[in-house]
Amino acid sequence: MPKISSDTLWELAAAEVHSRESGGAEERDGGEAVNERTVLLMGSKAGGKTSILLRCLDRDELSKPTLALEYTFGRRARGHNTPKDIAHLWELGGGTSLSDLVQIPITPVTISCLSVILVLDLSKPNALWGTMEKLLQAAQAHLERTSSQVQKSKSGVKRQTPSHSAARVLPKDYPDRELISPFPVPLLIIGSKYDIFQEFDSDKKKVVSKTLRFIAHYYVASLVFTSIKSESLISKTKSFFLHLAFGLERGKTVSSDPLKPLIIPAGSDSFGQIGSPPTVDVDITSLHAKNPKDLWKKVYERVFPPESTNEQRELKDPAKDPQYSEPQIDAMRAQKDQELEQYKRNAAKSWKGLELET
């Protein structure tokens, strides 16, 4: 008769967490290691993140608006009769309005095997820089805090936080080594809705393309333009995704023509190849920039002025968002809200009655 464990669910969960914090890959199926990676997907609101994720996972499902932060996973076998590696996939919805939620997937346990995918909507260039800047700053700030926690922890996480530096991606003699600022973890930037973007004026396309090349190279990130309407572009995007999620080899294709979809793996570009900021009716000498990145931002926003957005003021309670309406549930919720308000009024009256008696 099999032995029945007396451990509670919480004890088992605690043991699992301790096991993950104490070692590297988990062992299953005869002791063979199973690699687990975490990927955080964030970007422009309604920029196609879910659709891209489903296509990369070969899932034939209809995409739905992401509710705050959603989790899914992917598994992939390395060979016949071998355990499957696991990718934990977190998708942040709401554009920049819910950027604080990056703290959920970024933890001391996940930081050593974490990658970030930033999806930017090419069809809305006026919101592109602001979206990129705020989300990367939010993720980087929490990555740095988490890394400090790991280093200061007395019990410690035995796995070392990866030093994702230029030396890991670029040759030691790379000329831009002192000018770049590598993102703390592997980063992939995806320009979505290329089918709409390709109809833009050629000068404007050059501004967007060159700017994203600068940003990608500055952060030592890979850059790829895609469209869910193009099997060819999705296939190339999937190659980058599988590289981050499962460590598979990515394609070696490189395309830097600003009038074509960009495909630039990290480490294959340079500031010399990118050139100076595109000066479309902009006098660079009149711009008071603090550094090269600030200069590119000022030039870009001269061409694509940031739109005044109320995204931060948007309703953050999904229960009150019409797109998530459920008539029966909403009716029950309204009834309970009324009962709660009545209870509060009755309690207030009772309290006043007690005060009068005393």
TrEMBL record:
It is found in: Cytoplasm, Cytoskeleton, Cilium axoneme; Cytoplasm, Cytoskeleton, Cilium basal body; Cytoplasm, Cytoskeleton, Microtubule organizing center, Centrosome. InterPro entries: DYNC2LI1, Dynein_light_int_chain, P-loop_NTPase. One of its GO terms (molecular function) is dynein heavy chain binding. Coiled coil: none annotated. One of its GO terms (cellular component) is centrosome. The keyword Nucleotide-binding does not apply. Residues 147-168, 307-358 are annotated as: Disordered. The keyword Cytoplasm applies. Gene3D superfamilies: P-loop containing nucleotide triphosphate hydrolases. This is Cytoplasmic dynein 2 light intermediate chain 1. Belongs to the dynein light intermediate chain family. One of its GO terms (biological process) is intraciliary retrograde transport. Residues 310-320, 333-344 have a biased composition (Basic and acidic residues). Keywords: Cell projection, Cilium, Cilium biogenesis/degradation, Cytoplasm, Cytoskeleton, Developmental protein, Dynein, Microtubule, Motor protein.
